[in-house]
């Protein structure tokens, strides 16, 4: 939580006369002092036997409040652009979420902070194939591989440009992988 104090620089001075009327002799002046800092991490781990796949996100922010607020924020080690000054940026909150898109059978995990986000989508395909996609430039997605019983395999095929249902599968004997197919995948 932010620690904020209002510091009085000049007192407010009200004059009240004996006849009941009054006036302000000095409006007073004040400024804010304080700071806040936050940090966190979200790690996704999928394990199968001896195989382990992990993706981590880290985030942190720091705000200093005086006459203006200056906020710096970092996401996965890179400073976020354009946080800058102003009270609106004070105490930027990062969120991590796990949610499901029931219509697409597409659970996902994501982190967002300020004006950036990173989401990993999990496509549950046949033959124990779990395809992984990420948002590269919303709404565009990109496959970055699949987790199979034999481990991680780099991507094969493009993520569909529309969000229509698509199919994929892993062939456990030949090692063939199909992701993002518009038609069901059957191995012979």
List keywords for this structure.
5-stranded antiparallel beta sheet; elongated; 188 residues
Number of strands: 15
**Contiguous uncertain segments of 5+ residues:** none
The largest sheet is: 6 strands, antiparallel
**Class computed from helices, strands and strand pairing:** mainly beta
Tally of contiguous helical segments: 0
Percent range for helical residues?
Answer: under 10%
Please give the alpha-carbon distance between the first and last residues.
59 Å
Global morphology: elongated
Mean pLDDT, as a whole number? 78
* Strand coverage percent: over 45%
Order of helices and strands: EEEEEEEEEEEEEEE
Which strand order does the major sheet show? Answer: 8-9-10-11-12-13
Rg result: 27 Å
Could you please describe the fold and organization of this structure?
- The protein has 188 residues and is an all-beta fold.
- It is built from no helices and 15 strands.
- The protein has a 6-stranded antiparallel beta sheet with strand order 8-9-10-11-12-13, with no helix packed on it. The chain has a 5-stranded antiparallel beta sheet with strand order 1-4-5-6-7, with no helix packed on it.
- β6 (69-75) and β7 (78-79) form a beta hairpin.
- It is elongated and about 100 Å long.
